[in-house]
Amino acid sequence: xxxxxxxxxxxxxxxxxxxxxxxxxxxxxxxxxxxxxxxxxxxxxxxxxxxxxxxxxxxxxxxxxxxxxxxxxxxxxxxxxxxxxxxxxxxxxxxxxxxxxxxxxxxxxxxxxxxxxxxxxxxxxxxxxxxxxxxxxxxxxxxxxxxxxxxxxxxxxxxxxxxxxxxxxxxxxxxxxxxxxxxxxxxxxxxxxxxxxxxxxxxxxxxxxxxxxxxxxxxxxxxxxxxxxxxxxxxxxxxxxxxxxxxxxxxxxxxxxxxxxxxxxxxxxxxxxxxxxxxxxxxxxxxxxxxxxxxxxxxxxxxxxxxxxxxxxxxxxxxxxxxxxxxxxxxxxxxxxxxxxxxxxx
Length: 346
Ligand SMILES: Cc1ncc(COP(=O)(O)O)c(C=O)c1O
Description:
The protein is 41% helix and 16% strand. The strands form two sheets. It has a seven-stranded mixed beta sheet with strand order 1-7-6-5-4-2-3, with helices on both faces. A four-stranded antiparallel beta sheet has the order 8-9-11-10. With 346 residues, the protein is α/β, with parallel strands linked by helices. Pyridoxal-5'-phosphate binds at residues 58-60, 63, 84, 140, 144, 171, 173, 203.
């Protein structure tokens, strides 16, 4: 059984059907098509205001392009120490921005605290020509440790950022899981809290290869259009990328899929917490469970054929189990039973 990632699973049938539906007849290319227009209208409805939507194929492209629109080449982008944009994108944001730096901050459970950001900015060398200039903040929702920022925490970070003249980006690779967990409106967690640009994930939630850069400030749209083209992310048959995201956002599919994945992760988190010698590493607030496993349990699960990543958060004993729209309750039950069996004294 595979708990490595929500990337290892396939595609939601509704999204495959939307691709087949888009595969009929002809339509304009490069995002001038009806599906892309429909997606922008649907997203505007969802976010309760007019938004601009720029579909791309990967989350790394969404993050790098979004950040490049928020920072000059000499800028500094603040992020959490575990941020995907800093650790897992091979300097994509630095490359796309033409040289801006990412500046990692510590923070409990994968989250940046507004007070720590404020403290870092209080000593930043604003206006000194020798130093990188603070320009933006990026936060991940849900975080790289599977926790969710509350809207008030996001508003707190945005307030600090704004006060120091920085813009705010949200890496929402698992935005759906956060909305499902918090039960809040997408607007509350984004522009109403002060987010300028969102990387809205669909792939991990059940699309094939589709993420959207959502702009809450449409003054960035012209620049971003050129940046996306220059980055090779303006697909000629854009309707197939837009169709995936549009189907994902239709009839609450994104939330239904995320609720399912979150429910499995919650069961897994509760079950594993009862296993002797196994310690939760972060609260389970989305579709990922992080735990510290004894060597015996870790090796035992691997020998049983369970697949998951170990060595998370820079620690060899921290493992990550990820649930998806396709994870079954019995898959979770089998993992919990196996962990119990391998636990010391069992
Ligand atoms: C937090 C986060 N952001 C962004 C991404 C997007 O990555 P990719 O470029 O692989 O689609 C991922 C994927 O692992 C992620 O976990």
